[in-house]
Design brief:
alpha/beta; five-stranded parallel sheet; two-stranded antiparallel sheet
Length: 354
């Protein structure tokens, strides 16, 4: 496509639509149906599949010295998620670069080119149609934390785009069953961990999530479901975001950032406590089967504890920015609580071993 034709795309109304939910909840199926319907509307639309764009090594887990594999995910995936949004932003700013990746980006180049190729079909529309054709990005990922979705909202607001969210609500048993039939299934334990962390869109709590709907996808998607999604997207296209004149949204962003920092520091400290507990158990010659049970119980306790801590931080009305609170004191207090739980678990396992 010529640079002039590419610039036409950026003058068109555009929307970022977040598809969120558990793995195998039906996000990709919904995306395909929306693409077909969008084509009938004369829209330029594409799916941004995070699983294809982000390499597998970004999600590798850590193995402790004792050989017991702990469910501790590396944080490298965070930078890759940001890189996906950077790719979208570069396209919005410089569509003449077409499918080129930002300098230093680690996103899969072939997958990104496929995303953009769906938007660059000048033969499908004449010049006047292209000027009016809406541009739609369907972001396909789990998006289980509000902070993940808020990053997309910020990008939409920065460029005055439409923004909406579709939460696919599907029971865990159905998701696990569908996942197991895939060629590359996600480990069931990962899905069990994710369901503990998942926080669905909550417009009552987060004003920026107002433009969201929930679909029950335990059964097959209906024509009515697709119609609801298309109406949601149409509304978002007709009502693009604009930079907030007050600092309400910024305060929400600061609160999310601070909560994430507190939870991250607490997570690191809890991991050290788990390592100490495992070391104590080895020194007391705890049997291998009890060692494995200890590791599993400690990590399950940690995941539940951190999830609860994050919810608590975000719900505190007085919680604002990092400079307004003693992060070190909050982390220490949280770790003390986890340490008490750790001691109880360790004592119980050692009693079972004796």
């Amino acid at each position: 496509m010529a640079a002039e034709e590419a610039r036409v795309v950026t003058r068109s109304p555009a929307c970022l639509c977040v598809l969120c939910g558990l793995p195998a909840a039906g996000k990709s199926t919904l995306a395909r149906k929306v693409l077909l319907t969008a084509a009938l509307h004369g829209w330029r639309a594409t799916v941004v599949p995070y699983d294809d764009l982000i390499p597998e090594h970004a999600f590798q887990t850590r193995v402790e010295e004792d050989g017991v594999k702990l469910q501790q995910v590396h944080t490298e995936w965070k930078s890759h998620r940001q890189a996906v949004l950077q790719c979208i932003e570069q396209f919005l700013e410089k569509p003449q670069l077409l499918a080129e990746l930002p300098v230093g980006s680690q996103i899969d180049s072939a997958a990104w080119q496929q995303c953009i190729r769906a938007l660059l079909q000048p033969e499908a529309l004449d010049h006047s149609q292209a000027e009016r054709a809406p541009l739609l990005f369907l972001l396909d990922d789990n998006f289980y934390y509000p902070s993940m979705r808020y990053e997309v909202y910020q990008l939409a607001r920065k460029y005055s785009l439409g923004f909406c969210q579709v939460y696919l609500q599907c029971d865990l048993e159905s998701c696990i069953s569908r996942n197991q039939s895939r060629s590359k299934p996600i480990p069931t334990e990962v899905m069990l961990e994710m369901v503990k962390r998942l926080e669905s869109p909550n417009p009552q709590k987060n004003s920026w999530e107002t433009n969201s709907i929930s679909l029950n996808t335990t059964d097959n998607l209906s024509k009515c479901d697709i119609q609801k999604v298309m109406e949601l997207i149409s509304s978002a296209l007709s009502n693009p975001l604009s930079p907030a004149e007050d600092n309400t949204e910024q305060k929400e962003a600061d609160r999310l950032k601070c909560a994430t920092n507190v939870v991250h520091q607490t997570d690191q400290a809890c991991r050290r406590h788990i390592s100490e507990a495992m070391k104590t158990a080895r020194e007391n010659q705890v049997a291998p089967k009890h060692m494995k049970s200890l590791a599993a119980q400690l990590n399950e306790s940690k995941a539940t504890f951190l999830h609860s801590l994050r919810r608590q931080l975000l719900q505190e009305a007085s919680f604002a920015q990092e400079e307004d609170m003693d992060v070190e004191r909050v982390v220490k207090r949280a770790v003390d609580v986890f340490d008490h739980e750790k001691r109880e678990i360790l004592l119980r396992i050692m009693n079972e071993n004796s």
